[in-house]
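Long-time lurker, first post. I've been practising inverse folding by hand and with some scripts of my own, and I keep getting stuck on stretches where the structure tokens seem ambiguous. Below is the full token string for one chain I'm working on. Before anyone asks, I'm not after the true native sequence, just a reasonable design that respects the backbone. If someone could post their per-position residues I'd love to compare against what I wrote down in my notebook.
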């Protein structure tokens, strides 16, 4: 009888141990999964940030180009006006 009880106890202990092991494994897996998810999220965020930065840079470049073009146009207009004035003056003087 005592032996039987002992055996039962042993069996129970073994079962408990097994359960504990299983739980631990599950926890480890869960942790790993969480870590992976976090890493992925971080990577995605980084990528998004990079893309945004690139877009901003492109926009800035475009703006700069537009400004330059405007400046050039203004300069050309001024030059044309000056030429016209000179021509008018010359014509008046000749007349």
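-- Answer (accepted) --
I ran through it position by position. Result:
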């Amino acid at each position: 009888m005592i032996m039987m009880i002992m055996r039962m106890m042993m069996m129970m202990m073994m079962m408990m141990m097994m359960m504990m092991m299983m739980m631990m494994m599950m926890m480890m897996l869960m942790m790993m999964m969480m870590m992976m998810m976090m890493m992925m999220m971080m990577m995605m965020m980084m990528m998004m940030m990079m893309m945004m930065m690139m877009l901003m840079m492109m926009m800035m470049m475009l703006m700069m180009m537009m400004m330059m073009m405007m400046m050039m146009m203004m300069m050309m207009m001024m030059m044309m006006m000056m030429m016209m004035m000179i021509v008018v003056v010359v014509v008046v003087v000749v007349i």
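A couple of notes from the structure itself: Helices lie at 2-94. The mean pLDDT is 91. Happy to go over any region you disagree with.
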